[in-house]
Q: What sequence folds into this?
């Protein structure tokens, strides 16, 4: 059978993967978003606290697995999963704005926005890779991987560290006084 005219279902399926440099970016971005969601959790009401802890733990575990494996877990659904915290935040804003009391659950805007920015970056990056449907070359070299990791970590730190400082957990961490 000629493979050029074969239906898509008859084509051999290719195992999607991400190049080490891309995995480094995805892992560092998920780490930053997870840290921000974890820092926002203590100020949230109990139900939202549970959701934020679950989201943070998932992002942190996904970051470790993404860095350790050739193929990030849940790769095909990662774009939707990465946008879940943003959908939750938008839902809370809409519910609060339309409530008769007019109160919105108070999550700090800058930290939640920074976490959302990182989640959107993960969603877009993984969506492009999934849409491309082409396995990545794993032979990119150690230097390229280390450079990608350094650049990714620097960019994510530039976003995450100031946002962490704007959370209640970040304020408490800075203002802790030691008594001797």
A:
């Amino acid at each position: 059978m000629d493979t050029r005219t074969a239906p898509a279902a008859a084509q051999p399926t290719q195992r999607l993967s991400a190049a080490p440099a891309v995995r480094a970016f995805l892992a560092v971005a998920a780490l930053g978003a997870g840290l921000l969601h974890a820092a926002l959790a203590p100020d949230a009401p109990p139900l939202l606290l549970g959701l934020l802890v679950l989201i943070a733990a998932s992002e942190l575990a996904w970051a470790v697995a993404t860095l350790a494996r050739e193929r990030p877990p849940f790769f095909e659904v990662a774009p939707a999963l990465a946008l879940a915290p943003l959908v939750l935040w938008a839902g809370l804003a809409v519910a609060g704005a339309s409530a008769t009391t007019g109160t919105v659950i108070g999550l700090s805007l800058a930290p939640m926005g920074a976490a959302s920015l990182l989640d959107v970056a993960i969603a877009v990056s993984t969506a492009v890779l999934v849409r491309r449907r082409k396995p990545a070359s794993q032979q990119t070299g150690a230097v390229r991987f280390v450079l990608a990791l350094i650049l990714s970590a620097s960019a994510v730190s530039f976003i995450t560290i100031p946002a962490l400082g704007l959370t209640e957990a970040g304020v408490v961490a800075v203002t802790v006084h030691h008594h001797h």
